[in-house]
Specification:
CATH topology: Rna Polymerase Sigma Factor, Chain: A
Number of helices: 10
Helix content: 55-70%
CATH architecture: Orthogonal Bundle
Largest sheet: none
Strand content: under 5%
Structural class: mainly alpha
Number of strands: 0
């Protein structure tokens, strides 16, 4: 069995045996233990579980689909080499820390700000449909989707460190502690970066008429 190299995945694709959060936890634990003992097929199961999350973090951080694909590939190769060093805790946070470091490396090498079409971010991440509530009518869903697109554009205007924290906490749903672990920074640093990033996003939305000016000082 060879290591499964990451490739562009179909939307909503994940490991076929995962049917619930509980099942995912059990499957992850079993695959992780086996992978740490050299079972390549078990590591491939971990790739299936987390390739979407890693790719979405990379895409929102780097802003280019090709760079995001490269970063995802490098992340899993690095994780495969270092899997024996994992010492417990959140595997997702550990994996995303590798992804974040990989993205920082790519940004430093290219020495540029991320910029890309919103269609690429929304279409390839597959998240816009998730943000727009399918239970509402088509007009409200369209408005919600439009707001998501503006938020996505606002993310690209943030400094790298702030953008990554927003992606980890507000998009991927990591706790402050997990985000701190993924970023390799103190808990207070995560909170301050997130606060500044949310404030900048609020201002961005206000300036584009997506948020009433009187709500500018309140949390989104």
């Amino acid at each position: 069995m060879t290591l499964q190299l990451w490739h562009q995945i179909p939307k909503n694709h994940e490991a076929p045996f995962v049917s619930s959060i509980a099942d995912r936890g059990v499957a992850e634990s079993r695959a992780l233990e086996a992978a740490q003992h050299g079972d390549t097929s078990a590591f491939n199961e971990l790739v299936l579980m987390y390739q979407t999350s890693v790719y979405n973090v990379a895409l929102r951080t780097l802003g280019h689909s090709e760079d995001a694909a490269d970063a995802t590939q490098e992340t899993f190769l690095a994780a495969y080499r270092a899997i024996g060093e994992f010492r417990g805790g959140s595997f997702k946070a550990w994996l995303l820390r590798i992804a974040v470091n990989t993205c920082y490396d790519l940004l430093r090498r290219k020495q540029r700000r991320p910029s890309t079409s919103l269609d690429v971010i929304v279409d390839e991440s597959g998240d816009q449909a998730g943000f727009a509530d399918r239970r509402v009518g088509p007009e409200r869903a369209a408005l919600a989707a439009e707001t998501v697109s503006v938020v996505e554009q606002g993310l690209l205007t943030l400094p790298d460190d702030q953008r990554i924290i927003v992606v980890l906490c507000d998009v991927q749903g990591l706790s402050y502690e997990e985000a701190a672990d993924a970023e390799g920074v103190a808990l207070g640093t995560v909170k301050s970066r997130l606060s500044r990033a949310r404030a900048r996003l609020r201002q961005y939305l206000v300036e584009r008429g997506e948020l009433p000016a009187e709500l500018e000082r309140h949390e989104l």
